[in-house]
Amino acid sequence: MILLVAAGLGAWRVVEGDMTVGTLVGVLGVTTFFAGPLGTVVAFSEGYTRSAASARRIAGYLGAAATTETVETPGKVSADAACATLSLTLEDGTVVDCRAGRFTALVSADTAVHRRILDTVAGEAGTLLLDGVDARSLDPRVLPGVLRISPHTPHLFAGTVVGNITGLEGGPLPEALLRASGVDELVDLFADGAGHPVDGAGANLSGGQQQRIVLARALAGTPRSRVLVDPTTAVDSVTEARIAEGLRELRAGERQGTLVVVTTSPTLLAVADEVVLVGDGALRRATHAELLADDSYRAVVSR
Predict the structure, then answer these.
(1) pLDDT, tens digit, for every residue of 87-144?
(2) Where is the ABC transmembrane type-1 domain (predicted)?
(3) How large is the angle between the packed helices 207-219 and 237-253, nearest 10 degrees?
(4) What is the 8-class DSSP label of residue 241?
(5) Which residue among 18, 166, 227, 246 is buried most deeply as judged by most CB within 10 Å?
(6) How far is CA 280 from CA 48, 76, 120, 121, 295, in A?
(7) Are residues 283 and 229 in the same domain?
(8) Which domain holds residue 175?
């Protein structure tokens, strides 16, 4: 931009007779020389502003006093119970109830309705209830034990594979969890196994590898309920089939609470306890096999 401005002003001065072509060439040379350093200064200023704001938030979080007090939750929500009933009230008023302890998959053939489901899960519109209690009213200290939401976009931090899954460096990972997420293949692939280093934002991993680690994180532990959004879109069909079978085995053998998955994957839909086809103000509940008779459903899930 600076070079363009200098060229424009210089050309105007040349036309007016106030500057020679040789002088213009010299001015442009000097401008080009200083353009790089000036750009660096501007980029540094922008980066510093963002970093300072982030540093203040992190410092505030780390400086918060730890508490050992008992945290009460409103209504009937309790981290001690095995599972919770999830209810999504979409922006248009449609209510989708997901039964406690079940694996429920949500599908919509309507793009606008699908967007409303995603907005409700993200807390941007509508309401997400746990046993009738608005998730937004829950104490943040209790929330991890009652609800875990895994968005479609993977978020990984610098550390190791196991650190990104459990938040702790080292320690064993259950075989059932590794199979249900497809991370077992990564552990076998990497020389360091679950201790394989992960760069910030998972830059040294493929999209499919990132997604499998995030899925393992979502399935780890024993929160009362989980909501996953398109957890297998970046993996191949063979890996997806292994994940679906591993997920079925994991839920059959361990306390996994209520699971809600927003997906159009026929492989995952086939192992769900129930599939809810969400229309514009209308719902249809059945199994994947039963819903395949519906043309609109079949068009969405067929690959």
Answers:
(1) 999 999 999 999 999 999 999 999 999 999 999 999 999 999 999 999 999 888 888 8
(2) 1-50
(3) 10
(4) H
(5) 227
(6) 47, 31, 15, 17, 16
(7) yes
(8) 158-221
Q: What is the pTM of this model?
A: 0.77
Tens digits of per-residue pLDDT, 173-217? 999 999 999 999 999 999 999 999 999 999 999 999 999 999 999
Q: Tally Cβ neighbours within 10 Å of residue 20.
A: 11
Two structure tokens written together for 89: 């009230």
Same structural domain, 163 and 132: no
Which structure tokens are listed for 37?
A: 């350093």
The dihedrals phi and psi of 24, each to the nearest 5 degrees, come to -60, -40
Query: Quick one: 140 and 99 in the same domain?
Result: yes
Number of folded domains in the chain?
3
Task: Express each pLDDT in 248-290 by its tens digit.
Answer: 999 988 678 999 999 999 999 999 999 999 998 899 999 999 9
Contact (Cβ atoms closer than 8 angstroms) between residue 149 and residue 103: no
CA atoms within a 13 Å half-sphere pointing along the CA-CB vector of 167:
5
The dihedral sign for the CA sequence 76, 80, 81, 85: positive
Q: What is the pLDDT of residue 145?
A: 87
Comparing CA positions, the residue from 73, 76, 82 lying closest to residue 224 is: 82
Q: Is 101 left (phi over 0), alpha (psi -120 to 50) or beta?
A: left
Alpha-carbon gap, residue 143 to 240, rounded angstroms = 29
CB atoms near residue 271 (< 10 Å): 19
